[in-house]
What we know:
Largest sheet: none
Low-confidence stretches: none
Distance between the termini: 44 Å
Mean pLDDT: 96
Helix content: over 70%
Structural class: mainly alpha
Order of helices and strands: HHHHHHH
Amino acid sequence: MLTGILLNLYERDLSKLEEEIAAYGTNEGLWAKPQGINNSGGNLCLHLCGNLQYFVGAVLGNTGYVRQREREFSDSGLAKEELLVLISTTRRTVLSVIAGFSAEALEKTYPEVVFSSTMSTGYFLLRLLAHLNYHLGQINYHRRLTQS
């Protein structure tokens, strides 16, 4: 049951990420950092994709993805279309990996210690979903703030 719920929520929220990035009017707006805003919508998108590609794809799905977290926040200027491809790739990876989990697999301990503690894989996937939504809200705010 949890597998189906996770699939539904990740599909919904990664689709919303795609919609938010597609809704930026210009690449300049996507990468803008107005006063008081530390991260652009583009950087938050890179961060979300890197986070999911690593914790779901590499750790759980053995995809071989190598995360470069620093670049998630330092890269800039990628075309909106490049980010949309990245989101699509991330969605396919995440959904494919999660679809392979049984209820028993979700109860197993997540293979890496994160936040200085162990937790079940299912619980960690829910935390990752909460993280996705936190930044998704920031992207929505950033997009509206930077539109002319």
